Amino acid sequence: MPTISVFYGIQIMMYFYDTGKHHTPHIHAEYQDDEAVFSIVDGEELSGSLPRKQRRLVQAWIELHQESLLIDWKLAVSGQEPFRIEPLR
Questions:
Q1: What is the pTM (predicted TM-score) of this model?
Q2: Element (H, E) at 76
Q3: β-pairing, 26-31 with 3-7?
Q4: For residue range 21-37, what is the model confidence (pLDDT) as tens digits?
Q5: Contact 60, 79 (CB under 8 A)
Q6: Per the domain annotation, does 9 fall within a domain?
Q7: Is residue 53, in this structure, part of any structural domain at all?
Q8: Within-domain flag for 45
Q9: Three-state SS for 73?
Q10: What residues contact residue 70 under an 8 Å CB cut-off, 6+ apart?
Q11: What is the DSSP string of 7-71?
């Protein structure tokens, strides 16, 4: 699973060929022992959970990089390596 960004201890990833479970473009986020899946389209937390502060950071990052994330999603679901995306600063 390629890591596409890391910021404030949060690792953002996409799986290759990952269209089965959530049926929508999404990212996987890990922070310490917590994991969650977020929709790229609206930032909704689809499964799992992150602490409130980290959840808001991920949602803000998604909003800032939605277009790039959708391009990466198309690459990842076709088995290609997604591009790295700038972290939140």
A1: 0.91
A2: helix 66-77
A3: unpaired
A4: 667 899 999 999 999 99
A5: no
A6: no
A7: yes
A8: yes
A9: helix
A10: 25, 40
A11: ETTEEEE--TT--SSS-S-EEEEEETTEEEEEETTT--EEEE---HHHHHHHHHHHHHTHHHHHH
